[in-house]
Specification:
mainly alpha
């Protein structure tokens, strides 16, 4: 059952990203490294304020939806009511999402799809290298250790 839940959780993550970008990678420019963003600004394809507004419009609902989904999966679907098991399950989901984002989204989807290439920026690297993925995901692994405690606390409070 947990494996199915993990797949559904990561599918929700992917759906949220796809909804954010729609039919244009420019809608997700905030996902790109600074050199790509700077090139896009120099080309006049968009501006910093628009990107900042789109980032905020995506990130707030994204975090709220993913948090709600995680709380509902662990607390409601799995019926976890005590802190330690809620913490361990939340940590599992957050770490799975973390590494899924780095490997499946960043390296596979973004790295192998022409959709993510913004015209005029073809020569600017935008796909994270394996060392960058490992470093970023390693740091986020540590952050999610604390984040899972917050989620577990919410689950105990709500359920």
């Amino acid at each position: 059952m947990i494996l199915l839940q993990l797949v559904l959780f990561c599918a929700l993550f992917t759906l949220m990203v796809k909804l954010a970008v729609g039919n244009s990678a420019l809608n997700g420019l905030y996902f790109y490294p600074k050199p790509v963003q700077e090139r896009v600004y120099a080309l006049g394809l968009t501006d910093r304020e628009t990107v900042a507004r789109k980032r905020k419009r995506f990130m707030i609902p994204f975090f709220l939806v993913m948090l709600a989904a995680l709380v509902l999966i662990v607390g409601l679907w799995n019926g976890i009511r005590s802190f330690r098991p809620a913490y361990l399950q939340a940590l599992l989901f957050l770490e799975a999402m973390n590494w899924y984002d780095g490997i499946v989204i960043d390296r596979l989807w973004v790295g192998h799809s022409r959709f993510w290439v913004i015209p005029g920026t073809e020569e600017v690297p935008f796909v994270q290298t394996w060392p960058q993925v490992l470093r970023k995901r390693g740091i986020l692994t540590l952050i999610w250790i604390a984040g899972a405690a917050v989620v577990a606390g919410l689950i105990v409070l709500i359920f």
